[in-house]
Amino acid sequence: MLRDWSGGNRAALEELMPLVYDELHRQAESFLRRERPDHTLQATALINETYLKLIDQRDVNLESRAHFFAIAASLMRRILVDYARLKNRDKRGGGAIKLTLEEASLTVVGNERNIDLMALDEALTRLEKLDEQQARIVELRYFSGLTLEETAEALKISRTTVITDWAMARAWLHRELTR
Questions:
Q1: Which residues make beta-bridge pairs with 98?
Q2: Alpha-carbon distance 9 to 60, whole Å?
Q3: Is pTM beyond 0.70 here?
């Protein structure tokens, strides 16, 4: 189905979605649990928005299940950042969306911190200019919740490289976000 969709068969995406929906829902729920308590976007709405963006994708060359989830993670990130920007614009800068990042993501060991989603997105954009691979690893691990192995598969790199780049990216982002 991934190959069919990559080949331009839009009906293949409709067949694929029921098979990946539960995993997408799990990832969306996991991410949204880290949002502020009064966040109004629900996991189902996030998945629906992601689906609408997937439909609009052109020239998608999906190579694996992990690659599909990598694309979905990137789309979810954009949706959440756009949502945060809209809310901040509506409130003229007040009430920025805060994320609690677990130790495995961007925090110092034993010291959870709240991170502004827009600040994280801006930092990831800067990181992408310095090291695109590290930015992709953060996106896949944090936004999509992929394992080290799934991230390595999606990016076609070794697990060891993912571990090294993940550690470096976390350190770089921590420095950027705590300035």
A1: 116
A2: 11
A3: no
